[in-house]
């Protein structure tokens, strides 16, 4: 199944905080509602995502809020900062949008905002975009990622097709970060605890050790760019999976904030694809 990733729509929505819940020590759930989400709608992808705009709305901001106009008319230091987050759930009937935030204390931007958010606070967002949903025709499914991918993995796991086996691998800091996933009986969920090891080490080992079931797999692999690169090589080169069988991307990269990562991501992806092409060519020779 060839995945076509949709770009986020440029409509600016305004979500009003309805509830805040601490799911685990490092995961905060924020539920948004309000009239500002009246035009919000997803295309049904389980990895739907939005671009959150910081700082939050303030008195004197132009309305309607036009990101393009602001970038064309104001100095860069006055541009909004964007952070990309998965739509954990959206209920069109009640107009409730749920987003889960990884929180590491006062560091970072979006996580710190979520931890301090209170009902009545507002936040602007662009989107949603998306491109992945579990292929109902695949013989089995593989989902793998770290905390940053957990909301998308959880949303996808809830929509895995009945009667098809699946392996779900999630690496988190420790057992206190595990969440209950709503899955059918043929889905095996593997929680991997980092316990001080480098990000992705336990995850890569576990996926590499998996005995792949027979048949065509549809795989979703997202998270820190280093282990995503390693797992991409495993799936593409060692297991010979075609690109259309994969939804795979680095959500973030160690040592970079989102702005730095996004500015270098295209070059990183090209280098990964070049290495992959050389390895595949070597196998075919």
Give an overview of the whole structure:
It is built from 6 helices and 12 strands. The protein has 285 residues and is of the alpha/beta class. The strands form 2 sheets. A 7-stranded antiparallel β-sheet has the order 4-3-7-1-2-6-5. A 5-stranded parallel β-sheet has the order 10-9-8-11-12, sandwiched between helices. The chain is 25% helix and 30% strand. Helix 4 (201-209) runs parallel beside helix 5 (225-238) and helix 5 (225-238) packs parallel to helix 6 (258-284). It has helices at residues 67-73, 110-116, 150-157, 201-209, 225-238, 258-284, and strands at 12-24, 27-33, 49-54, 81-86, 89-91, 96-102, 122-129, 140-145, 166-172, 187-193, 217-224, 246-252. A hairpin with a 2-residue loop joins strand 1 and strand 2 (27-33). It starts with 11 loop residues before the first strand and ends with a helix.
């Amino acid at each position: 199944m060839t995945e076509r990733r949709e770009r986020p729509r440029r409509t600016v929505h305004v979500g009003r905080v309805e509830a805040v819940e601490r799911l685990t020590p490092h995961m905060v759930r924020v539920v948004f509602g309000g009239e500002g989400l009246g035009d919000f709608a997803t295309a049904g992808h389980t990895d739907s995502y939005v671009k959150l705009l910081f700082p939050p709305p303030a008195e004197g901001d132009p309305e309607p809020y036009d990101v393009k106009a602001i970038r064309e008319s104001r100095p860069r230091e006055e541009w909004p900062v964007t952070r990309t987050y998965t739509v954990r759930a959206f209920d069109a009937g009640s107009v409730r949008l749920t987003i889960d935030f990884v929180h590491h204390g006062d560091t970072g931007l979006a996580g710190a905002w979520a931890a301090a958010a209170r009902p009545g606070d507002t936040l602007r967002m662009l989107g949603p975009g998306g491109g992945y949903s579990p292929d109902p025709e695949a013989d089995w499914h593989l989902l793998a990622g770290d905390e940053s991918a957990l909301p998308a993995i959880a949303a996808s796991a809830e929509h895995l097709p009945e009667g098809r086996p699946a392996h779900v691998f999630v690496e988190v800091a420790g057992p206190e970060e595990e969440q209950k996933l709503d899955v059918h009986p043929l889905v095996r969920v593997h929680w991997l605890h980092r316990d001080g090891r480098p990000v992705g080490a336990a995850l890569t080992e576990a996926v590499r050790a998996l005995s792949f079931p027979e048949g065509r797999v549809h795989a979703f692999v997202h998270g820190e760019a280093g282990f995503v690169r390693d797992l991409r090589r495993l799936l593409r080169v060692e297991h010979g999976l075609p690109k259309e069988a994969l939804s795979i991307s680095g959500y973030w990269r160690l040592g970079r904030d989102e702005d730095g990562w996004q500015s270098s991501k295209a070059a990183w992806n090209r280098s990964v694809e070049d290495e992959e092409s050389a390895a595949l060519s070597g196998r075919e020779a």
